[in-house]
Automatic annotation (TrEMBL), chains A, B:
Its EC number is 2.4.2.1, 2.4.2.2. Keywords: Glycosyltransferase, Transferase. Belongs to the nucleoside phosphorylase PpnP family. It is an enzyme of class 2 (transferase). Catalyzes the phosphorolysis of diverse nucleosides, yielding D-ribose 1-phosphate and the respective free bases. Can use uridine, adenosine, guanosine, cytidine, thymidine, inosine and xanthosine as substrates. Also catalyzes the reverse reactions. The keyword ATP-binding does not apply. Transmembrane segments: none annotated. The keyword Transferase applies. This is Pyrimidine/purine nucleoside phosphorylase. It catalyses: thymidine + phosphate = 2-deoxy-alpha-D-ribose 1-phosphate + thymine; cytidine + phosphate = cytosine + alpha-D-ribose 1-phosphate; uridine + phosphate = alpha-D-ribose 1-phosphate + uracil; guanosine + phosphate = alpha-D-ribose 1-phosphate + guanine. It comes from the Bacteria.
Length: 107, 107
């Protein structure tokens, strides 16, 4: 995984997903196998996301700190690393400096 | 053109394009014919964009007011409408209420 990550042969939805008044923005892509991912950006701040399905968060740019529900550890992630969040759970993500770019996969 | 606009069989680049400290964010898609588009969001504010190649801006959500360089008219655009900007020119775009979603094509 690196900054040049790309997804081929997908369907891209034109309208963005906007959270926290624009501090987190993503675009949805649909893959040939029917799965869905979102390509997103997190601006500096702290945000809580709940999950329905389990999620894989791949960081493709920037840095973030993450606390997953029911965990008492804060973990750091840079571009090229990823973390999983169980379904029916959630995570608090903190971005401090430059924006954090991610790919979210719904497992 | 409407909010459900989508682009099939494209390559989507994972890392976003960020302008004006995150007030304008887009993701790039590459089409089978080799052309490039960006799917973007403009948060409330006023922004100036210069152009190199001519651009087609299709509004797929929200509303904006636009003044193209060397023009003395301000034109309004809602979802489903579009405007062209010559190359080596530019435009001032103002978004007032809800975020404005666009598709930018490089002609």
């Amino acid at each position: 995984m690196d900054n040049a990550m790309e997804f081929q042969n997908v369907t891209a939805l034109a309208e963005a997903n906007i959270y926290f008044e624009g501090n987190v923005i993503s675009h949805t892509i649909l893959l040939p196998d029917g799965s869905r991912k979102t390509l997103g950006v997190i601006l500096p701040g702290q945000y809580y996301f709940g999950t329905e399905a389990p999620e894989l968060m791949e960081i493709v740019g920037g840095h973030c700190e993450v606390v997953i529900d029911d965990s008492n550890s804060t973990d750091s992630y840079d571009a090229g690393t990823s973390f999983k969040v169980p379904g029916d759970s959630g995570f608090t993500i903190t971005v401090s400096d430059s924006p954090c770019h991610y790919v979210c996969s719904f497992l």
